[in-house]
Amino acid sequence: MNISRYRDLTILDNDSCKLVIACDSSGAIGPKELDVIKVDGYTVGRFLTRVVLMELLSVGATPLTIIDTLAIEMDPTGQEVINGIKDEAAMVGLVSPEFLNGSTEENIPVKQTGVGITAIGQVDHFFAESLEGDYVVVVGIPKVGDEVSIEDKEICNLPSIREIRKMSGVQEIVPVGSKGIGFELDELLKRNKLILGKFQTEIDLHKSAGPTTCVVLTCREECLEKIKNKITQPLTILGQLKKVEKI
């Protein structure tokens, strides 16, 4: 079996299939006494799950299972988080009771929320390359902390990413997190040995996108209008990919 990395994903390839593993964590965000950002456990579970499932969907993987590692008690906070995990997972067809496993902290009283999550998916065709001439766009808006809410139509969600991933001509989809759009864009350019021509934008490239409130994607020109018609989030065109000019 071959084990490799692509961005934040671990890929297990045994020739017959590829398994893709994504993980995320969150601390001091929740309903507990010492939490810095006060929010209910259900919302924590929704966004925690959204991050890892968006990572899987972005490369074309079908989610198979989720494991939660909750450094909180089961009742009541842990159960609230689990309810959020289940509702978010249902958006991609994970509804069987067996899809979810995990653990909670039952030995020590906890005064601050700490949660982790891992998702595993399977993929046949792995989308991991951008091409010269592709347009680079941002879908969504970077938001973090108190700016983030579940029903915000400006931030990315699973249905939007799933629809975009189905489109022919869409290449890479890169979820943006705490390092911001600029970091993910730089990494994309380095991976593909390309540069971005006609770069201009008013969007904040350095701001954290929190729980993946936006994505950077590359696509052919004919996809731009199709994407706009499929999403509710803002679409910002950053520029077009070009080869590095040799001196």
TrEMBL record:
Domain PurM-like N-terminal residue range list: 17-123
InterPro entries reported for this sequence: PurM-like_N (IPR016188), PurM-like_N_sf (IPR036921)
A matching Pfam family: AIRS
Protein name listed in UniProt: PurM-like N-terminal domain-containing protein
The species this protein was found in: Anaerobacillus alkaliphilus
